[in-house]
Amino acid sequence: MKTKASLHERDYLRSFMSTMTEKSDVIINYVLAVYFLLGIALSFKYDTWEIGAGVGTLNLLAYYSAKLCVKNSKFYQYVLSVVLAIFMAQYIYQMHGLFEMHFTVFVASTILIIYQNWKLQIPLALLVILHHGTLAYLQNYVYNDANGFQIYFSQVSFDLETFLVHIVLANAVFFMNGYWAYYFKTHSHDHITKISDEYELENIKLASAKFNSIIATKEYNDFIHKTTLDLKMPVSSVLKLIDVSKGHTDNDQLLNYLEMMKESAKKIDNLVNDIHFKAITGKTNPNQ
């Protein structure tokens, strides 16, 4: 089992995660546009234009400022988590505590999964607890006079029991979405590691095949070299014997036979020399 990612694997992981982050950022641009426009649309209900346009604009400025000013960092993603939580609080206020507006935070929590970073659920969970706890207390225990100042948090009774159930269920959703973000990241890493292992194994096989081919070629060349040396000696001896024999006879027919034998022996000698030269250099003997 591998205990440390190879350099190639780390580069591939970094490239993959960078590509996924870029694609996620593009999606978030559309999400934030929809969230901002939703705030504008909700302003028609209770004439909350200052909140819809003002808070919405500040949210966008906070996110894009963090993204542009703190580069090569995931800080802007945590700012995004906070911004999405603020949008939830904005919608709740704009709709005078309409309970359904609380569900927008679950949409935000699900959207954050695309970054494959479970820690992004933490700012969202903390702000929900802080927002719900503070406003539920103010609405029920401080500004509870129907004729006085109003806190728009919930249109239903939001006592301690309701608050605890609400927070537990909300955090259960955050936990599950955090788990899925962690799972997707782990699955991506495992998949890339598997691909990297297969790639390295294939490289090892290719290197082994190349090494075996080199060994086989060397053994073949060594065999050819030895064989040609073994052949050169008897051929050379035959040529010398023919020259000696020609000096000891005047028979024209015999001399003719010896000359024919000599030509044949020379052809064999040239062939052996050519094979020997090619085995050593890999080229054809230019002298042949």
Descriptive account of the structure:
- There is one protein chain.
- The chain has 288 residues and is mostly helical.
- It folds into 2 domains: 7-202, no CATH class; 214-281.
- It has 7 helices and no strands.
- The chain has helices at residues 7-46, 49-69, 75-94, 104-111, 121-142, 160-246, 252-281.
- Helix 1 packs antiparallel against helix 2, helix 2 runs antiparallel to helix 3 and helix 3 (75-94) runs parallel beside helix 5 (121-142).
- The two termini are 58 Å apart.
- The model is unreliable at 1-5 (pLDDT under 50).
- Count of domains: 2
Taking all Cα atoms into account, the compactness measure Rg is 43 Å
- Uncertain runs with pLDDT below 50, 5 residues or more? 1-5
Number of helices: 7
Largest sheet, in brief, is: none
Helix content class: over 70%
Based on CA inertia axes, which overall geometry fits?
A: rod-shaped
Report how far apart the termini are: 58 Å
What letter string, H or E per element, gives the SSE order?
HHHHHHH
Give the beta-strand count: 0
Q: Mean of residue pLDDT?
A: 78
Q: What is the SS-derived class? A: mainly alpha
Beta-strand content estimate: under 5%
